[in-house]
Amino acid sequence: MGKKFSAAIGIYVVVKAVFNGIIGAFSLPEIVLAVAVLGFLLSGIKFVNYVVAVLLAFVVVKNFGNNISDIANNWIYLIEAALDIGAAAILVFNKDVKEFFSAGIPKK
Description:
By secondary structure, the protein is mainly α. It has one domain. It has helices at 2-23, 28-43, 48-69, 71-93, 95-100.
């Protein structure tokens, strides 16, 4: 179940990057980074869940002031921020996700 949660969050990050590219300025590096995050979340490498959670939280904190200053026009970004916080919380606190990332690099 931890891998499924991780995959869902990774897919969310990719969809978010594509969506932000459609409604804003397209950024190939942002898409590449999102796909890399998906790959890392699927890898099960130890502590990656915490790194991705910190990155998601950082993006929320970095953009919060701009998003709340014009709430009527930025409501979609506030929803995105809530989803980012939820994803970060799952990556940090969900027992199945923590178990998936506790073993280190999976052996074949």
